[in-house]
Write a structure and sequence with these properties.
Length: 72
């Protein structure tokens, strides 16, 4: 999984737990791999988060930002 600033993470929703949504604020790796600094929409809390198998990314823009594409 990879994500960049502005992408949305959706996780949970299984075994009776509600789904949660978070906006990716930043990441530690230029290639978009976790962990990510996120802001949870339900609480406004900002945390460092590493995805689980149940997580999905909704990309806000191109798969990779232009500055990364230039160096691939």
């Amino acid at each position: 999984m990879y994500a960049f600033r502005g992408d949305q993470i959706v996780t949970g929703g299984g075994a009776g737990s509600p789904a949660r949504r978070a906006e990716v604020l930043s990441g530690d790796h230029a290639d978009g791999h976790p962990p990510f600094w996120v802001r949870w929409s339900d609480t406004g809390e900002e945390t460092v988060w590493t995805p689980t198998a149940a997580a999905e990314v909704e990309h806000a823009g191109p798969t990779y930002p232009p500055e990364y594409e230039e160096h691939r």
